[in-house]
Write a structure and sequence with these properties.
Strand content: under 5%
Amino acid sequence: MTRVRTNPRSLLHSRARSMVGLVTAAGASAAAIRLSTRLPEHWQGPWTRTNHAGERVTLLEGPAWVVGALAGLALSGRDGRRRAGALVITAAGLGMLDDLAGSTSSKGLRGHLTALGRGEVTTGAVKLLGLGATGLAAAAAVEPGRAASGRGPGRLLRTMVAGGVIAGTANLVNLLDLRPGRALKGVIGLALPMALPSPAAAASVGASLGVIADDLDARSMLGDTGANAAGALVGLALVERTGPVGRTVSLAALTALTLASERVSFSSVIDRHPLLRRLDRWGRPATDAPR
């Protein structure tokens, strides 16, 4: 077997580029969210919501996150930039449809599938199906770059698992976007270990750092636009950095969490465990009320 040696200079250059991408993403998302506060009121109106505590927040954090991520990705390699950029834009577009045109009549995976069974096509169902198709397309684009990827049923199965990881991570981040800072902490926690070798992970971390102060202060939230884009990009980084076993384990964990969310409240589980509760509330104002 021939062993492929990694060029230390090339590796150093790749890590440096990822770090620059991280810093660029942070600066761009921070600038974008600042600019969003200066938009005319009639532009901000459709993005304004009332959060769990009854406070008015803006969902424009989502588009700001996307701007930051795309700015960070612009410094990555051509193939990776196109693949990741297309994924971010598509996932954000699907989330934006739900943010601006969605209703609250059907919630969760079960709710949207039940409505679909009645012949009612909700924006949530369109988003779920769209994320699945988008994840598969992104996964299929990753496979040709892998050595000895093979063809036939084996490759199809690997692509389906990888697509499930991308779509599942997008859904998970969306499920976490219920309390200030929770979703962004999840994104940073998942992406940070991969940030140096992975431009996608670096852009995810950077874009999240740029908007997390406003999120923790309950002035803004990711919404579906930002949560779906952030989760999909982290999912892509996981697919790019793991093999079949890692992807399968990731998909199993994501599936278990998604099914669990249909029966139990993540907030209730977090509040019952002191360590999780402390991590969840870290960075929020001291006056933040218990959940």
